[in-house]
Each structure stands twice: as C-alpha cells, then as structure tokens.
Specification:
This is PH (Pleckstrin Homology) domain-containing protein. Keywords: Membrane, Transmembrane, Transmembrane helix. By secondary structure, the chain is of the alpha+beta class. Helices cover 52% and strands 17% of the residues. The strands form 2 sheets. Strands 6-5-4-7 form a 4-stranded mixed beta sheet. It is globular.
Length: 242
C-alpha cells in the first residue's frame, strides 16, 4: 500500500505541466528598442563622441584658465597649476570609459550587430565590418579588467568584456576559413592572446602585465603634469605681460 506522500507525487490524470516561458531581460529589451532593428547609425555615434571630446577639451581649458584668473583676482592665493593638473588627471582617467559598454545585446542577421549602452548613449558595432581588434587591460577589483576594444570601418569604438562575444570572435577568427576575415581585420598581438589565436611566452606575459599595470596610471599622471605645467606657464606669462 502506497503512502499518501507517494500518491501526491504521482502525476494526476488530466493535469499537464505549465509550459516554461523564457525570461526576457527587461534592460536588454529596452536597449534593443533604443538601438532599433538596424542599430544606431554610425555617423550619429561618431558625432556624439566628437562632441564629448570637445566638451572635455573645453573642460581642461577651463581648468587651466579659470584658476589663473581667480588667482590674479585675489580669490585664490595659489594652487592654480595643481587645479589644472587635477582636472586633466581626472579627464584622462575617464577617457577609456567613454567607449566601455556596460551591457550589450546581439541582434541583426546572425547576431552581426552588437549594441551597447555607453557614456555617449547607445552605439552599434557591425561585426561584419570590423577593422581592428585591440585589448585593454587595467587593474581592477579583483584581478584585471580585461576588455576587447572593437573598431569597425565606420569609426565606431566599443570596449566589452562579454564572454559570449569573446567566444564568438575567437571561433570566427580561429576557424580554418577565416583567412579572408583575418586579412581585413587587424588584430593586435595582445588581443590575439585573449582570443586564443596565439600562445604568449612567459617573458611576454610578465612584460605585458607590467605594461598593463603601469600604463593606465602613467598616462593620466603625464597628462596631469603636462597640463599643470601649462597652467603655471599661463600664469607666468600673465604676470610678465601684465
């Protein structure tokens, strides 16, 4: 005689399991709506990036001129070059984030379009029109922030660390019939290691780790020192000509 619990577990006649409805990510759905079926026009994405670059250049220029003017007017006692260098340092640190995609979605025929939300809005990269693949790696928390820097022939840039995208690119350029694509797309040595198209030596991995560790810090520091010196020079010329 079966127990009551066993009878409950048996499928009851006339009852069917409810079909499982695939869950759709609302954020990806919204991103797809903004991108549209054919993606964001490349000229729009390039124009947005250019305007943001001009805005950042204007911000750096204001960081040089405004502290010097305030110092000459007596509002600031000193420190104009330090303020100018600090503004340039912050802008340089944020430059890679302009092309970084926080979330991507694949669409179009065979998923050839990659749309992502960036600091300048949604932009779309056409994988069939890729011109260059580079790799950007910087110290993160924890480990490394490891991203591929994609550039298509329209001039659209996108940084992404999406694993599915990396796997698809590795399969595409690692296939035996990918010689034509590999000839048209310039893949850096660092990116080829990320895609598994080449095996780095221990010496190269050590040297590259040192470069990836120092470069994201040295470039902003150099920019800060250069702009800080420009601020000091501007103030000195003002005093000499005044």
């Amino acid at each position: 005689m079966t127990s009551r619990a066993q009878r409950r577990r048996r499928p009851q006649p006339g009852r069917r399991a409810a079909p499982q409805v695939p869950q759709v990510d609302r954020r990806e759905a919204k991103l797809l709506v903004k991108a549209g079926p054919t993606g964001v026009p490349p000229e729009l994405s390039v124009r947005r990036v250019r305007w943001l670059h001009r805005l950042l250049a204007l911000l750096v220029g204001a960081g040089v001129a405004v502290p010097v003017v305030l110092e000459r007017c007596g509002v600031l006692r000193s420190g104009a070059p330090a303020i100018a260098g600090g503004v340039a340092l912050l802008v340089a640190l944020e430059m890679p984030l302009l092309h970084s995609g926080s979330r991507i979605v694949r669409h179009g025929p065979d998923g050839q379009l990659v749309s992502a939300r960036t600091a300048t809005g949604v932009r779309t990269v056409d994988l069939t029109a890729l011109a260059r693949i580079r790799r950007y790696r910087s110290p993160g928390r924890p480990g490394w922030d490891d991203e591929l820097w994609l550039t298509d022939r329209h001039g659209v840039h996108l940084l992404s660390d999406d694993r599915r995208l990396v796997a698809d690119l590795a399969a595409r350029f690692g296939a035996a019939d990918a010689a034509a694509d590999g000839g048209r797309v310039r893949i850096s040595r660092h990116a080829a290691h990320r895609l598994g198209l080449a095996t780095p030596s221990r010496r190269y991995r050590f040297v590259r780790a040192c470069v990836d560790l120092a470069l994201p810090l040295q470039v902003p520091m150099a920019a800060g020192l250069t702009v800080g010196y420009a601020g000091w020079l501007f103030g000195a010329l003002w005093v000499a000509l005044g």
